[in-house]
Amino acid sequence: MKPNQSIYLVGGHITDFIGKGRPDWDEDGDNPTLEEHLSEAINTAFDDTGVDPDAIDRGYIGNFAGECFANQGHMGALAQRANEALEGKPFQRVEGACASGGLACVNAVDALQTGSDIVMAAGAEVQTNVSAREGAGYLARAAHWETERELDDFTFPAMFARRAKHYKEKFDVTDEDIGYVVKKAYDNGNRNPKAHMRDIEVSLEEVSSVNDNNFCFLKNEELKPHLKVKDCSQVTDGAAAAIFATEEGLNKLGIDPNDCVEVASYGWRTSPLGDVDDYTVLGNTEQAAGEAYEDAGIKPSDVDVAEVHDCFAVTELLMYEALGWADPGKGAELARSGATAIDGDIAVNTGGGLISFGHPVGATGIKQVMEIYRQMKGKCGDYQVPDVPQVGLTANMGGDDRTTVSFVLKNLG
Amino acid sequence: MKPNQSIYLVGGHITDFIGKGRPDWDEDGDNPTLEEHLSEAINTAFDDTGVDPDAIDRGYIGNFAGECFANQGHMGALAQRANEALEGKPFQRVEGACASGGLACVNAVDALQTGSDIVMAAGAEVQTNVSAREGAGYLARAAHWETERELDDFTFPAMFARRAKHYKEKFDVTDEDIGYVVKKAYDNGNRNPKAHMRDIEVSLEEVSSVNDNNFCFLKNEELKPHLKVKDCSQVTDGAAAAIFATEEGLNKLGIDPNDCVEVASYGWRTSPLGDVDDYTVLGNTEQAAGEAYEDAGIKPSDVDVAEVHDCFAVTELLMYEALGWADPGKGAELARSGATAIDGDIAVNTGGGLISFGHPVGATGIKQVMEIYRQMKGKCGDYQVPDVPQVGLTANMGGDDRTTVSFVLKNLG
Fold first, then answer.
1. Which residue, among B95, B106, B130, B404, would best test binding to A if mutated, counting the most A CBs under 10 Å from its CB?
2. d(CA B145, CA A72)
């Protein structure tokens, strides 16, 4: 989808992503609620951009499983509690599992094409209030419950262990190859004060091998060897909000387009639950991103900075291939080359990705576009890429490559 | 919202709405699953309209609490299992509690304004697989759980008992006044083979009084006298699907606009959870419908047929007032006059409404537009209104008047 007019990302806010392992997370459970995270993201987005809440025409809220984790649905009406100026404005929740945040951005961009001028996309998830095993059951609702839930108590980790197994076997990929992604994630997250996993120094050997801090936890014996704790994204609480506008919207707000990022295009593709042809390929991601590249008129090699959905370490390697940066089976070579490091040609997941920055499900897709914005506007502090990026890409994924959303963003100014 | 081009409702399908009290509902729980209901609605919509599934550009799925009732989220990808031709097309779930179906239609219409030509809105809910009390807890996730859940085990029934109490006290409305709506619902549902509550003859006296078949069930002593079993919408399983198209879409499909219904406008409004000013007024509904009337260029009295969200009997009376058909406190007079009966000037909920047709939450908003379509095209059999309606209105509501969606539909042909 190439928008029918210029659409701008004005800015927004990402909350601290918190959870077990972060010093300010309370083990006794006294942590911010879903509503508190969402409200902070929304109101700080107003503060940081200077956008008057009254100016918002509509809102789209990404959330996957609030009904389970927080006994709360009806997120459009929940979000409005953040700020009384929002009352009465059309708000709704959208859901596509872990791509819910990306879909919120898609809907915001669509709304701007149908008459709205200034639209908010926000997303949130709270997951640390239940055990990891219970939470894994909630997250398994993103798979086809009836046929896939029994794969393992940790259904999604098992589904991606299955991908790791096939990928390793087909292309002679090693645990150390996959470990490069893990080490990059932790190294990047260490520079990011918002990240869930901060101040955790890891060695390549430690993240590539089975040890007390990096054990295999699946029950499924066939898949168990193919996934270790540190290969996984985090169980995180947090929220993010982004404000999008048309040119007329920017005029109303008195904001210079050069202070914004342009939404050049998006790709969005959905495929049936449970129907994966080839575990070594992210086919839906490839097609959604392919559409985004084409509609933006760019090539994969034009991308300077990217946020990709590293729900598990192997996924990042598969993403490199799906997004056109590496040939099949060559994702690890790209990681080893340093090309996707903060100072690489295609800086990927500079803030630590889902593995270290964390993965509050409904927020992730919005965090992705906001991270591209922040890199383009030089707001990333210790993890700022050295050269101002001109072209950015996101790849947000729900379920096992079932709902995929990619944005191409271009720097202005 | 007046669409930026002509948008047509081509047709669709409503499944049988089933649940306790209907002969074909299995008390042992062997009933169609969420996926089965959704698939039936989708595929029969293709069959009934003759639309090739390949022609669909996008899909929006309304569902409120599949994560709780069916252990299933990610409904966009679930829906695609219905038909292999859908694979890869952009599908997402949208949620606004009991207005989720209305929002699916809103998104479909928006998508048609941004480049799509043929879009499906579908919705489903399965609720009969848990006890009524457990289900009431799931549905309470449409309220502000933290502050409203404790009102009663049956949170929403209590919230609308509160409305009934205030409405009765302010306007001297009686249980018999409210009973008129209940009797109309059951009488209409008796003519509708898809309705959950079929073949149940009720007298005005029976539905207006407390008796063995119509007892008060709330624990909250203050509110208990103000709601009886038959005042309530049903706990129902079911699904509905509707296909919308632009003029170019109709050309592709070879469908004559005169065989369709035109989407003249919609109104959509959201307000914060827990923030109701006046229990005797549906203020959000009034404003959403007001916007729809204005954008369609019609007056309330122009409406020939309507589907309104009678989640409880008193709500239908409040709807009459919010929708501009009766002055404050005069809704019951309108009901008593027969004006909203099948042969009345404004035929309301001709198939039995949520009280008798049933209320599979995520399907309801889509069922509403489909019922208007079916009345306009003479497809309602024993409950067909006598004169072909030219103007139709829907009023779908999520939570306690928190998310509201109204469509104005115009007959063609």
1. B95
2. 6
